[in-house]
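If you are new to this repository, start here. Below is one unmodified record pulled from the training split, so you can see the exact layout before writing a loader.
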Amino acid sequence: MSDDFNPYPQDEERLPEQPQRGRFLFIVVAVIVIIGLLGSAIGGVAWIILSRADGTAPAGVENEGVANVAETAVVPTVIAATTVAPAATPSTSPTPSAPGINRIAFVNDDGQIETIAPDGRDGRALTDVAQRFQFPAWSPDGQYLAAIGGDAVGSAVYVLRDQELIGPDRLYFSRSQTPFYLYWSPDSRTVSFLANHPSEGIGLHLASVDDAADSRLLATGQPLYWNWAASGQQMLIHTGFSGDEARLALIDVSGDGSGDNIADPGFFQAPGISADGRYWAYAEASGGISHVVIADTESDDQHRERHAGLAAMAWSPTANQLAFISSATADGTSFVGPLRLVDAQTGAVQLLSQDTVLAFFWSPDGRYIATISLRDGEEGDINVAAPLPDSSRRGRLAKPVPQRGLPFFDLIVIDVATREGRQLTRFRPTVLFVTQFLPFFDQYALSHRIWSPAGDALVLPMEENGANQIVMVLLNGQTRTLAQGSSAFWSPR
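And here is the target side for that same chain:
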């Protein structure tokens, strides 16, 4: 391949061959803190990161480093697919407003869950126990929060209300099968979650808020991603990455987890179901080549886009538009790369951003996409050895080289209709955000919101002045530090 190879040429015909085994981008950053995470009472944080280097990457994918961004660089104007413009309809107030609940849940520095209003007032402590919690997830109706809590005895899944210290309900507990990810059903009655499984790697469990004493194992696989159907009665699941153990199926949640395989899964993570339920999105492999597929469940038609590396995708919450990222080069092996938009009905493809996009998130009204990007052409100071890919040495880590800090990332918001974007801020995220959230953003985007309900602000955990801070960023670039904490998520309404 020539150095100037374009993986997405104008005619969309000449597309790159699927890369050979390489290195998954985020794991190198994760190794910086993985040893510390292993000491945590909640072993799931470390486990899910290690699993990526432990045989769950697509065939041949090892780990590649993330270049750090120099702190002293001048912040440039963001380059979108066309021209640059200020963010549309910027707020004139540092506090967004929206009807409904409009609260932010976060994990404070003591590992306890609190909620707060976007103006920084009305803070409520929801837990005050000898456990540490992580990744609180709002139910779609905004009435509940689910969270993972753990101590030296074991780990559990809890459900809380946004009221002060009423005591959480425990839906699941295990001393060894640690839960590490939560995702509510659309009707807010069931919490689906992942936990370690003693023989199958990962187990997908269901627990009802109406019957806190009962939870059941629905499916297993490693890795395991899924999207709830709007009815709450089915899931589109993807397990494994390629080969005989990979699976892409629509399953009934009331059944035994079985379902006919839809396609030979390609190189991607979380599958997607469009807002109206008509279209599915996934990647399909054929002859070692992977295509992003948009499947019309009504007509059985398909639109296919060949891609390099992995693909990470997400549907608009309001329209039949699929955004996805994949490697910009033929030999790339991660999903980090330009952001593209596909119209499911016409198959038209647009380039929304040519930046090095690590993750992206649709606003609730479908008007904007927020991207988290690395600046191209800058050298970083992260230089660590990756987890050893050899399966015979599975689980062992190479010795990390000391580093001076995590990268700085750019937060950019793109107007989908005009394809114009604006950089809102440049920030250094918390360690947990980099190691646990970003590598699996396409799955977390289904369950954990960083956008305000009105789509006029985002909330992010940032490292500022040596402390972890919860920061609200408005579309006009104004910021407000709300509290100290490691992760934060906005209520859905």
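Two things worth knowing about this chain: Residues 49 and 374 are 21 Å apart (CA to CA). The longest strand covers residues 349-362.
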